[in-house]
Design brief:
The chain has 110 residues and is α/β, with parallel strands linked by helices. The protein is 16% helix and 30% strand.
Length: 110
C-alpha cells in the first residue's frame, strides 16, 4: 500500500511506499494502480484525506492525555454517512498502558 504521513522521516518496515502530501498520494495511487492508501497522520493529514476515504480504522485510547503529550486527534466526521462494521476492545495489559478500542467504519454510498 501507499502510506500518507506528515512525518518526513517515516520508514516502512514492509513494501509500503510513503508519500507526504494528498496530491502526491492520489497521483501515485492512480499511476501505480494501488488499491489502498493508508493515512497514518497527523491530524491535518487525517482531515485532508477524510473526503477521499472509504474506510476508517479508528483507534481510541481510553486515557485523558495532557495537552502537551503530543496526542493526535482524529477530526470529527459525519457518522450518519458511515456505518461501523466492528469494534474491538483491548484492555490494559503488559504491552498496552491503557485500554483502547479499534473501530472499523465504512462510508455509506448513495
Amino acid at each position: 500500500p501507499l502510506v500518507l504521513t506528515s512525518d518526513f522521516s517515516f520508514k516502512s518496515g514492509n513494501r509500503a511506499q510513503a508519500v507526504t502530501s494528498v496530491p502526491a498520494a492520489l497521483e501515485l495511487a492512480e499511476k501505480t494502480g494501488a488499491d489502498e492508501l493508508v493515512c497514518v497522520g497527523g491530524a491535518r493529514t487525517y482531515e485532508a484525506t477524510l473526503p477521499f476515504a472509504d474506510t476508517i480504522i479508528l483507534t481510541t485510547v481510553q486515557h485523558r492525555f495532557a495537552p502537551d503529550e503530543g496526542t493526535v486527534r482524529f477530526p470529527a466526521f459525519e457518522r450518519r454517512q458511515w456505518r461501523v462494521e466492528s469494534v474491538r476492545h483491548h484492555p490494559e495489559d503488559r504491552e498496552h498502558s491503557w485500554p483502547f478500542d479499534i473501530e472499523i467504519w465504512h462510508r455509506l454510498h448513495a
